[in-house]
Each structure stands twice: as C-alpha cells, then as structure tokens.
Design a protein that fits this description.
Blueprint: H1 5-32, H2 43-99, H3 104-125, E1 128-129, E2 132-133, E3 145-148, E4 164-167, E5 175-179, E6 182-185, H4 190-193, H5 217-229, H6 240-290, H7 294-320, H8 323-327
Antiparallel strand pairs: 1-2, 3-4, 5-6
Helix pairs in contact: 1-7, 2-3, 2-5, 2-6, 3-5, 5-6
C-alpha cells in the first residue's frame, strides 16, 4: 500500500484535531477546577457524586437542628441560672424576715420585695427565643404562664403581685432529630421545672382553685410573702417553717434541671463533632470524584502542546520534500 501525500496530510490533521479537542477539554477543567462537567463525562462517578451530595444535604439539615437546639438549650440554661440566683435571693430575704423582729412597715417592704422576685421568676418562665416559648413544653407557641385574679378570674389585668400563677403549657417536650438514630429535646416543660400543674379549665371557675401542687414555686413565694406581710411567720397553714424547705427544694429542682440541660448540650456537641467529621469525609469524596487534578492536567496540556508542535514540524518537513530528495 502506497503512502500518499494526501494520506500523510490527513493523518496529521486527525492527530492535530484530536490534540486540539483534548486541549480544549483540559482548558475547561483548569478553568472550572472540575473533572466532571456533565454526567456523560463519567456516568458512574457522576451518579456516585449525586448520592454523596444527598448524604451531605441530610447532614446539613441535622447540623441546622443541632445549631438551633444548642442555641435554645444554652439560652434555657442561662434562664435557669438566673432563676436559681433569684430563688437564692428569695431565701436570703425570707430568712432575714424570719430571724429578726422587724416593724410592720419593714415586713411589708420585705413582702413586696419577695413578690417582686416572684414576678421576676414569672418573666423568666415566659422566656422565648425566636417566637418559641422555652418552658411551654410541646405547646411552645403560646405564653405558658399567666396570672389569674382569685377574686375575679375574668379580670384582664390581674395584680401580678397577688394573683395565682397558672400554667397553660403541657408536660411534653419538643424533640428534633440530630442524626439518623437520635432525637434530642430542645425545649423543657415548666410543669417539671417550677412544679406548676397545668390549668385545664376554660373558662376559669369562680372562685378559681388555688394551685394544687404544694411544691409550686410561685405559690410558695406568694404564701411566704403573705406570711411576712401579716406577721404570721410562726403561724398559718402552711407556716414559714414548712415553706422554707419547699423553697430550698424548688431551687434544688431547678439546679437539677440545669444538670439535665448540660447533659443534653454535651450530647449535642458530641453529635456535632461526628457530623462535622462525616461532612469532611463526604467533601473529600466529592472532590475526588468531581475535581480536576490540576497538576496532571497542566502536565498533559504541556505535552499535547509539544505534540502539536512536533506534528506541525513533521508535516512541514514532509511537504517540503520532492522526488529528488528520494532519488538522491
């Protein structure tokens, strides 16, 4: 078979076209930093990359839940820390009133200060974060604690210093998933923190019943203030000696709940670290599947440029040869 000038030229043109096409591809990879520019480039790796990205998307949702739960629980912990300090102040105030012979005017001032602390605790119990009430249980979009005037339950503006405090939430906690196998409670019910029983009756009966739980911290503070104001420190039912241990127990309960919050936060942080590690591994996997090997592409591009130059040089030499070059 005779090799013609046309055949030689066509061979070189095909070689140049193949090199040029590959160079264009290498330029695209280097410009985008990606090896897979479309699914047809490598269907198997493209399918695997989509699967990995879906897994990363799920982890991202879990991480958002973790961030939200961590913020809520951290906020709840700070609220309970303030509540613990407030009850400590109430204990000091009550002890001072019980251990000294104060005139009636000063006893009234002490009672008023104790009721102010009660209102401060009421405000803490109604704390919310981004529209979610922390201590409402699963009913966390409704203000969990309200005042009810025992003399007139229909009173829209009851005196916060003398009224009952009632709970409108429930005993459930909202749970959010933080990985495929674990959910974490990101709210707490005030029913178990402040020992305030739910108030299910609607409308409120007349007269409304007094809070039924003897460990209800709001009622403890109200009864203590009433005893101090009327000088019934050693008398009354329950009397001061019975109320003081209940107040201490209420403070201890809140401290215990802070411990539970701390355990939840530690668990969340552990899961956060695990998810971050998983996200890192998935990112590395996607990078291996999709990203271009820059060093390899640059080396290949240089080699193909050299090959193009060699092909052009070879074709130019062949085109310059004549019959006399072959016959001497």
């Amino acid at each position: 078979m005779r090799v013609t000038e046309y055949g030689t030229t066509l061979f070189h043109l095909h070689a140049l076209e193949a090199n040029r096409s590959r160079q264009d591809r290498l330029h695209l990879e280097l410009a985008s930093g990606r090896r897979l520019l479309q699914d047809s480039d490598d269907p198997a790796d493209s399918a695997e990359a989509r699967t990995v990205r879906r897994q990363a998307g799920y982890l991202s949702l879990y991480r958002e839940n973790i961030d939200r739960a961590s913020a809520t629980l951290s906020y709840a912990d700070s609220i309970l820390a303030n509540a613990t300090q407030l009850l400590y102040q109430a204990q000091q105030l009550a002890n001072q009133a019980a251990s000294s012979l104060l005139p009636s005017s000063q006893l009234k001032n002490s009672a008023s200060a104790l009721l102010d602390l009660r209102k401060g605790l009421f405000d803490l119990a109604n704390s919310s974060l981004q529209g979610v009430y922390i201590f409402g249980g699963a009913q966390n979009t409704v203000k969990p604690y309200i005042y009810v005037d025992p003399a007139n339950p229909a009173n829209p503006n009851p005196d916060p210093l003398t009224s009952y405090v009632v709970f409108r939430g429930d005993g459930n906690d909202r749970e959010v998933p933080v990985n495929t196998q674990l959910t974490v409670q990101d709210t707490m019910s005030g029913q178990e923190i402040f020992n305030t029983n739910p108030y299910p009756t609607n409308p409120v009966p007349v007269p409304p019943p007094a809070p039924g739980n003897p460990q209800d911290v709001f009622e403890i503070l109200r009864l203590m203030a009433d005893a101090i104001e009327h000088g019934n420190i050693q008398s009354g039912t329950p009397n001061f000696d019975q109320l003081m241990p209940l107040l201490e127990k209420a403070r201890a309960t809140i401290s215990d709940k802070r411990g539970e919050l701390g355990a939840r936060l530690n668990l969340i942080e552990k899961v956060r670290v695990e998810i971050q590690d998983q996200e890192t591994q998935l990112t590395i996997r996607v990078s291996k599947l999709e990203d271009a090997d820059i060093a390899k592409d640059v080396t290949e591009l240089t080699m193909r440029q050299t090959a193009n130059e060699a092909t052009l040089y070879s074709q130019g030499n062949i085109m310059r040869r004549t019959l006399f070059d072959f016959i001497g």
